[in-house]
Every structure is written in structure tokens, then in C-alpha cells.
Amino acid sequence: MSNWQSICKVTDIDPNLPEAALFGTEQVAVVKAWDEQIYVVSNVDPRTQQGVMSRGIVGDRDVEGARRATLASPIYKEVYDLETGKCYANDATPCPCTTHA
């Protein structure tokens, strides 16, 4: 059973341009990355606690020979793995996230 609930149509999301959404009381950023995967992360930047991740820069990073979709915070440019939430810049608090195939 899936825990996914609809926010918008996949065709409404432009690749590499995150969209902000309010899901219940939680702010989320919805991202369609280069790999056509849909990623949903908290819109709240883990470091600053500001609702800005939907204004972040979508990219990718080579990790041990695998290309990983990333999102950089627009404030301090800390880069987060969109699948795991890991911060590549340091041991900062990870960004809560999930992936939808």
C-alpha cells in the first residue's frame, strides 16, 4: 500500500524547477530531476529553518560512479542528495525527503 497522496499532476512539474506545496500543515518542495524521478523534500532548509528549498538549484553529483540527483539550498548552497537527504557539504542535518518512481 502506498503512502503517496496527490499534490499535482506529474506533467505540471517542470524538470529542474522545484515547486512549493502545502501538504496539510507541512511545506514541501516537489522536484522533477534530470532522471525524471519525482522527489519530495521538506521545503524548510535544515540549516536556517527557512521555507526556501523550492527555490534551490537542482543538479547531480557523481557518488562512487553513480549519478545522484541533488538539490542545493538557495541560502548557503549546501547540496543535499534527493534520495537520501544526505548533506554533501558537511555533517549538517539531513534534508527530509522521499522518492516517487
TrEMBL record:
Keyword Transmembrane tagged: no
InterPro entries found in the cross-reference section: NirD, Rieske-like_NirD, Rieske_2Fe-2S_sf
One Pfam family linked to the record: Rieske_2
UniProt xrefs under SUPFAM superfamilies: ISP domain
Keywords: Nitrate assimilation, Oxidoreductase
Origin: domain of life: Bacteria
Rieske-like [2Fe-2S] domain boundaries: 3-92
Keyword Oxidoreductase listed: yes
PANTHER family: NITRITE REDUCTASE (NADH) SMALL SUBUNIT, PTHR40562
Name recorded for this polypeptide: Nitrite reductase small subunit
